[in-house]
Amino acid sequence: MNDDRKKAALDAWYRLLREPEAGMDCEEHYDKLLKAADGIQEAGLISNAQWRELVRDAREAFSTAIEGAGSGTVSK
After folding, report:
1. Which residues contact 6 (CB under 8 A, 6 or more apart)?
2. Domain of 29?
3. Whole-number pLDDT of residue 1
4. Is residue 35 one of the residues assigned to a domain?
């Protein structure tokens, strides 16, 4: 049963990673991903190492979003 809960939780987390909620800016998206990762870990569904992977994925998505948001907006 824990395997089913783990799979469902991770599926939902990765879906949020790929598809942020409408109107959510990149900081809100990052915060929501971190809170979701914390919740999955606190529920005992993932290990500390798996939690770090989620945080790393969230950080990479945030960095990519920040870089994309700034590209082409400044004229010199």
Report:
1. 40, 45, 46
2. 2-18+25-69
3. 62
4. yes
By the 8 A CB rule, do 48 and 42 touch?
Answer: no
Give the span between the Cα atoms of 6 and 13, in whole angstroms.
10
Tens digit of pLDDT for each residue in 13-46?
999 999 999 999 999 999 999 999 999 999 999 9
* Global confidence as pTM: 0.84
**Nearest of 70, 76, 30, 21 to residue 54 by alpha carbon:** 30
* Number of structural domains found in the chain: 1
Q: Does residue 45 belong to any structural domain of this protein? A: yes
- Measured in residues, the chain has a length of 76
Could you count the other beta carbons within 10 Å of the beta carbon of residue 67? 9
74 domain residue, yes or no: no
